[in-house]
Amino acid sequence: MATVDLKDVRKVYPGGVEAVKGVSIAIPDKELCVLVGPSGCGKSTLLRMIAGLETISSGTCAIDGKVVNAVGPTERDIAMVFQNYALYPHMKVYDNMAYGLRNRGTPKDEIDSRVRSTAKVLELSHLLDRRPRELSGGQRQRVAMGRAIVRNPKVFLFDEPLSNLDAKLRGQMRVEIKNLQRSLGVTSVYVTHDQLEAMTLADILVVMNAGLVEQMGAPLDIYEKPASTFVASFIGAPPMNLLAIAAKPDSQADTLEKFFANGAGLGIAAPVLAATLGFRPEDADVLGEGEKPSGSLKLPATVEAVEPVGAESFLYCAAAGGRIVVRVAGRAVAKPGDSLEVLVPAGKLHWFDSTGKRV
Amino acid sequence: MSPRVVFPNRVLPYLLVAPQLAITLVFFYWPAGQALYQSMLKEDPFGLKSKFVWFDNFKKVLADPNYLYSLKVTVVFSVATAAVAMGVALLLAVMAEKVVRSKGFYRTLLIWPYAVAPAIAGMLFLFLFNPSIGSLAILLRKIGIAWDPVLNGTDAMTLLVAAAAWKQISYNFLFFVAGLQAIPKTLIEAAAIDGAKEMKRFWTITFPLLAPTTFFLLVINTTYAFFDTFGIVHAVTGGGPGKSTETLVYKVYNDGFVNLILGSSAAQSVILMVIVIALTAIQFRYVERKVHYG
After folding, report:
1. What is the model's pTM?
2. ipTM of the complex in this document
3. Which of A84, A88, A103 sits opposite B195 (nearest CB)?
4. A336 and A300 in contact (C-beta within 8 Å)?
5. B210 vs A: CB within 8 A
6. In this predicted model, what pLDDT tens digit does every residue of A208-253 receive, in sequence order?
7. How far from B141 is each of A41, B136, B164, CA to CA, in Å?
8. Contacts of A73 in chain B (CB under 8 A)
9. Same domain? A213 vs A267
10. Are residues A152 and A285 in the same domain?
């Protein structure tokens, strides 16, 4: 059991490309930290540096309080699940799982009992004599997990482990990974580009962008209070609606009427410096007939497309300031081409300044 | 299996394979048949008439101690050449993979020797290791090794193996490099995280996954050592000293073209053909079973 501490970690490649530009994350014991971000944001590089597969250009990485910058992956006592699983194709499932234990000189009968009990937990017992190519994608994924778990390492590292599975299996494995991680109580770092995985798995969620940490915290805190337009549009599906409003650098608070044409604001004051207004699709509603709202943002919009998902429907609309998505429960009444008024309670509005930071 | 494409034309397929068939027939089956026929003939010393003697030539050849000795020489030479050529090539390929900068440059340099003709390669080694004028022979003698491939059979064999292997290393290197590149990097990384040190990783992951390449090269190298080394033997030792480096192929040449015992020479080449066919069959039947194809 261990903590993982990253202090101002940087990665500069020989060509001069800076993939990670100073990241500090402290992961407490037994917690699952998810690194999420678009491709190329440096999340995988960061994970590989924790694994010891990439050297750390500057800063420190400490596992269990011990700085491991100079320790090779062989001695870090970590286990990693790769995106392509990286199972040894010439070995049977049993040997794949036993390999790490054998390398560490574990006695034979202990290897056997540990491999078999892990296989039982993961429902792999009947597959132990097969080779990886004889397994389905989901089974391979399980073997990769088993290979990590059986070693009982200090830290688990997951590099987009579910991205090669179909949607249903992915949902299933997500729950399973969370349960396993919790019951084994092993500190974990999980890299993904899928915000749903990130939200559901994380104890600590780290949103990365262009080599830097954009925001870090509990998933729901990040969801409720995104620190920037980047986080706002990355976390949540569909993403937060963002509308540009004219920023007035040193003015006092302005009411929204000034920014939207046909008297949309209904007396809501925009904070100083606000340049972007945001709200979540699920916080918006369609104004019903005869309703007289107060304290809400009222936005005239034209429906462009309707996506019925079943329990809910998404209305894709064109409004003053940009395109927005509105979530309505159940079946949508509106049709493409309809004009309607979108209503957002004042308390559900998010404000960002011209650099994208939350106001 | 992917669905087969069916062409309705009945003549065209035969026409398309005809050139390949013609080449195989004219350049392989015809000479092979000729050799088979010749191996059952016996000619008089002046080459005026020949007589059909069935398997007499084979009986004679197989009972000849010189021939059996030559067989032994060939086995030693082939095994040593294949082992050295493949071992060194594998080592070089693994090392070349580790080079970070100007990888391509190193690789190109290592591939060049393959372009050298066998006889030239032989001459090169002959000069380098010539006991009286060879620069490397002098070095060997300076460090206290009595080196004389002209008189000592073992030295001659060593020189021959070195020359033959040297030429084949480039070829093997090329395939090993390609084989190494085909191994996913994440497998090696996974093994590292699984606690396997470098040597262990090589023997438990890299080497088994290279098996298809190694097997292919084993077949190619044995065939090379058996057949294609005539030029090197001819240039370096000429089968000597005595008959200590007279391989089967060289003996076929010597008996047929120098001593003009055509019947016996033909019988020997038929035996050689059978040996190589058998060897390849054995390799495919027993060794390939242990090979894991990705």
Report:
1. 0.78
2. 0.81
3. A103
4. no
5. no
6. 998 899 999 999 999 999 999 999 999 988 889 988 876 554 455 5
7. 63, 9, 23
8. 189, 192-193
9. no
10. no
